[in-house]
Write a structure and sequence with these properties.
The complex is a heterodimer of chains A (202) and B (392).
Chain A: H1 6-25, E1 30-32, H2 52-55, E2 83-85, E3 94-95, H3 108-120, E4 126-133, H4 140-160, E5 168-174, H5 185-191, E6 193-200
Parallel strand pairs in A: 4-5
Antiparallel strand pairs in A: 2-6, 3-6, 4-6
Helix pairs in contact in A: 3-4
Chain B: H1 2-21, H2 26-29, E1 42-47, H3 51-62, E2 66-68, E3 76-81, E4 87-92, E5 98-105, H4 109-123, E6 133-140, E7 143-150, E8 157-158, E9 166-171, E10 177-182, E11 189-194, E12 200-204, E13 210-215, E14 221-226, E15 233-238, E16 245-246, E17 254-259, E18 266-272, E19 275-281, E20 289-291, E21 293-294, E22 299-304, E23 310-317, E24 319-326, E25 330-331, E26 333-337, E27 339-343, E28 349-356, E29 359-366, E30 371-374, E31 384-390
Parallel strand pairs in B: 1-2, 1-3, 21-25
Antiparallel strand pairs in B: 3-4, 4-5, 6-7, 6-31, 7-8, 9-10, 10-11, 11-12, 13-14, 14-15, 15-16, 17-18, 18-19, 19-20, 22-23, 23-24, 24-26, 27-28, 28-29, 29-30
The chains are: A alpha+beta (202), B mainly beta (392).
Chain lengths: 202, 392
């Protein structure tokens, strides 16, 4: 069967190998199990350490799709060594409606303020990381995609306010980093947000 | 195919039972009692087995659609003993056919019982699952790591210690390797992790999000959600992340890709023309087609069964419900509360996450009977386990 896969096959095959003879001997034949499962994942816990240096790029060169209407993302690894400050722009955290990535009219002035900050702070060089977040009322991967769309919406507004897209990177945390880890409507409203982390050249 | 065989064997034993006991109507009782949520458990009785062996055997059988009764009412009689290796015997009560009679040695009692339950399940022409593995995300505090465990949660061990967020592990078919999303490098990156030696390779770390990896059935491709071009869209690339190709171009949702077992389709959750649903597209590109899920709103997190017949998914309708729909689309069947289902290789059992208080626990569901049971937790009761992927 096409779906029978190696992971279980290894073990099953090992057992079958002896079961084959077992059938001839009839009931009572002892089927030895391997002391350690063949193909045992014995080195679990020894995952290679990850560092920015090893991880960057992965040798991938994406071909831009012609006719794309989104604003191509900025490679965040450019800013790996820049200083991060979560406080400076905290007052401009943008909140979203349930299950929506649209910027609400009342939130627009915060994005203009972020753009203004970037315009007026250019030495040392600055950039911003937009973090998209969700409340817990979606499934995890749905929320990770929704948080991404929230961060991208905020980025588009900041670009529209005159900031070069290369100064804005995005990341989605889905529901993994709630601002208020509670299950109330008030907490959910605080968790549906885009936060701005100021990046400063070292 | 497999479930046809099962139906055939049930009908056959009912027929033999009818001829022996002269109750000709019994045959019709079996009709219409298969299919997701509609199946009746297969009744077994267990005697002579106690303690850990009994616990392990009952768990194995329960999550594959068996249930327990006395020797007079059971279809199969299981007896056994522990001591000098597990000895198990299973017999069809009606035909008196001995299904399995074996003594197991070596490894642990647990593994011996799993081997016996697999032998019993195989004797009924079903695909066994008691010696398979699962991978999942385990969250403690703000961080999460990758855990690999036996299908019942036993023998769980942490495969990473990155101290950051890890998400969406996806077992690469036929390999001791998984893809997952890691935040260790700051932004999201999709990694391939070889479980045999711990080697890891970054396969996608573009600007924007790099999330929801889904390996193709032959392992040669990986589908993923990226936003490198400015919108959150579905892409497919070579297994090592090379040659990414954009399959959707939309500002609206796309999430959670999975593959048809023949590799001809990538199924995903999306919103198209303001209509949220399950959709499919060829990995070679082309038109996006809707998979109807009648009676259900907001489907997400699809997983296509290894036999190709069903797509299991989570519906978001206030709460979260595990549902299945024929893979060609149609009437969806709501099963139990839960999220992020992943099929076992038997196309019958799934592993999924249930919310319990402020955290999630993993559970196994027999889709036919809707019987489910939580798997053993890693290291006591702390933390939240979610996003399981069944090795197949």
């Amino acid at each position: 069967m096409k779906t029978a896969r190696l992971v279980n096959l290894i073990v099953i095959a090992a057992i079958l190998a002896v079961v084959g003879t077992g059938c001839r001997r009839g009931p009572g034949y002892v089927t030895p199990l391997p002391g350690k499962k063949p193909g045992a994942i014995k080195d679990i816990g020894s995952a290679e350490p990850l560092t920015g240096a090893e991880g960057t790029g992965g040798g991938i060169t994406g071909t831009p799709v012609v006719g794309s209407e989104g604003i191509p993302a900025t490679d965040s690894s450019i800013y790996d060594n820049w200083k991060q400050d979560a406080e400076v722009l905290k007052q401009y955290t943008v909140y979203f409606a349930y299950d929506s990535s649209a910027i609400q009219t009342a939130e627009r002035s915060k994005l203009e303020a972020v753009a203004e900050y970037l315009k007026t702070h250019t030495s040392p060089r600055t950039a911003v990381k937009v973090e998209g977040h969700c409340d817990e009322r979606g499934t995890e991967e749905y929320n990770r995609a929704l948080g991404d769309r929230r961060a991208l919406s905020a980025r588009e507004e900041i670009v529209a306010a005159g900031i070069d897209p290369s100064r804005i990177i995005t990341v989605s945390y889905g529901e993994d980093r709630p601002a208020v880890p509670q299950s109330t409507p008030e907490a959910w409203a605080k968790n549906r947000r885009a936060e701005f982390i100021l990046l400063t050249e070292p | 195919m497999k479930s046809n065989l099962v139906i055939a064997s049930i009908t056959l034993s009912a027929f033999i039972g009818a001829s022996v006991f002269g109750a000709a109507n019994e045959i019709t009782i079996e009709k219409g009692t298969t299919g997701p949520g509609k199946g009746k458990p297969t009744w077994v009785s267990i005697s002579g087995i106690s303690g850990e062996a009994l616990q392990v055997l009952q768990f194995d059988l329960y999550v594959q659609g068996f249930n327990f009764t006395n020797a007079q009412a059971a279809q199969y009689l299981i007896s056994g003993s522990v001591g000098g290796g597990f000895t198990g015997r299973a017999m069809d009560r009606i035909t008196q056919k001995v299904q399995v009679s074996k003594t197991y040695s070596g490894s642990s009692l647990r593994r011996q019982v799993h081997a016996f339950s697999d032998d019993f399940v195989k004797s009924l022409d079903r695909d066994p699952i008691a010696q398979t593995k699962i991978a999942y995300k385990h969250e403690t505090g703000p961080n999460s790591e990758l855990v690999i465990a036996d299908f019942d949660g036993a023998g769980a061990s942490m495969a990473t210690r990155d101290g950051s967020i890890l998400a969406a592990p996806a077992w690469i078919p036929g390999k001791l390797a998984v893809y997952y999303v890691s935040y260790k490098l700051g932004n999201t990156a999709i990694l391939r992790h070889d479980l045999a030696n711990g080697a890891r390779k970054t396969i996608a770390r573009f600007g924007g999000s790099n999330i929801s990896p889904a390996p193709s059935p032959d392992g040669s491709k990986v589908a993923m959600i990226l936003s490198k071009d400015g919108w959150t869209d579905l892409y497919v690339a070579d297994a090592d992340g090379g040659s990414p190709r954009r399959l959707t171009k939309s500002k609206q949702d796309e999430s959670s890709p999975c593959w048809s077992p023949d590799g001809n389709w990538i199924c995903f959750a999306a919103k198209v023309n303001e209509r949220r649903g399950l959709y499919k597209v060829s990995p070679a590109g082309g038109e996006v087609q809707r998979i109807r899920t009648e009676g259900i709103l907001n489907p997400t997190e699809p997983d296509w069964s290894p036999d190709g017949k069903w797509i299991v998914f989570t519906s978001m309708m206030g709460g979260f419900e595990i549902c299945v729909v024929p893979s060609e689309g149609g009437q969806a069947i709501q099963l139990v509360a839960g999220e992020d289902p992943s099929w076992a290789p038997n196309s019958r059992t799934i592993v999924f996450a249930r919310r319990q208080g402020g955290r999630r626990v993993l559970s196994l569901l027999d889709v036919e009977t809707k019987q489910y049971k939580d798997v053993a937790r890693i290291s006591g009761n702390s933390g939240s386990s979610s996003q399981p992927s069944w090795a197949r």
